Amino acid sequence: MKPQIIVIKLGTSVLTGGSKKLDGARIVELVRQCHQLHQQGHKVIIVTSGAIAAGREALNYPKLPETIATKQLLASVGQGKLIQLWEQLFSIYNISIGQMLLTRADLEDRERFLNAQDVLKAMLDYQIVPVINENDAVATAEIKVGDNDNLSALAAILAQADKLILLTDQEGLFTSDPRKDPTAKLISEIKTIDSEVKAIAGGSISGLGTGGMTTKLQAAEIAGKAGIEVIIAAGSRVNVIIDIANNINVGTLIKPKESRLEHRKYWLFGAPPAGQIILDKGAIDAILLKGGSVLPKGIIKINNNFSRGAVVDICHQDGYSIARGVTRYNSDALKRIAGHHSQEIIKLIGYEYGAVAVHRDDMITI
């Protein structure tokens, strides 16, 4: 099986097993499955809830008013406890983790998005498991993603993931609320999230988390637009992560609206180009014939001013476009490194965002 990038979102109810505190036995079993995916060559990203629950446990369940400040207090206490637990359990399998705390502002600003993407990619390249959570201790209502279901969808887009697994206290989405209707049937596959599907989505059973089925469908819509398939399943099911990775029918599969490539084409060609990168013949041949990236050495000229992360046309020196892509450097930096070897980037501009000006993964040929 082709190695995949798999994002696994774990709700508070999954991590606590429905109790008031984090369930170490439950979590170590989930870590074991992640280790097995690593052994199969897959790359795993964890989006974890549970900081507030960990904070309550650490403070011996204090009676506090339900305000943003007290929730942030609990999150700030619990975040360290939560990440320490993940670190301890992954270390059983000699796997290192890296923590990423995100807010909506980190994902809506193009440069911060790219910086987060660079860090995420670097961790995955070095077989480090990113453990992502919303930065509840500092986030305000205006900059919060809102819940970790939606955060996991944005993380999946950030990582250009193949699968997003939303583990919860239910087997998946049912035809009606199984807590009230014993005749409710599991919906094994959803091709379109329409008003009828949204109408049957219910809330969280445990009351410990912020997300129910409604936010999971919202996350599936976000991820689906980027060509990522989403699976909602029970975190308590034996080998649930392994089975999903092996394409065994588990829970509710929500099909993406389009392939990742089609989404990429739509996004790149839908955005007006901010400028042009003019290449020599050797660089153009490397892109068209060998599937290469745009290297500084092959750049002849930069037209227009643009920022890092802008969509630009990649052109022959006669003026016609051969590709369109997302630049990893702004126009000023590209002008300074144009015609030079990648090893010289730091010497020329004092920093680097990698050896390429436009990576092949961020480019579509015309």
From TrEMBL:
SMART domains assigned to the protein according to its UniProt record, in alphabetical order: PUA
InterPro entries recorded: AceGlu_kinase-like_sf (IPR036393), Asp/Glu/Uridylate_kinase (IPR001048), G5K_ProB (IPR041739), Glu/AcGlu_kinase (IPR001057), Glu_5kinase (IPR011529), Glu_5kinase/COase_Synthase (IPR005715), Glutamate_5-kinase_CS (IPR019797), PUA (IPR002478)
One Gene Ontology MF term: RNA binding
Catalysed reactions listed for this entry: L-glutamate + ATP = L-glutamyl 5-phosphate + ADP
Keywords: Amino-acid biosynthesis, ATP-binding, Cytoplasm, Kinase, Nucleotide-binding, Proline biosynthesis, Transferase
Domain PUA residues, every copy: 275-358
Reported function: Catalyzes the transfer of a phosphate group to glutamate to form L-glutamate 5-phosphate.
Family under the similarity heading: Belongs to the glutamate 5-kinase family.
Listed name of the protein: Glutamate 5-kinase
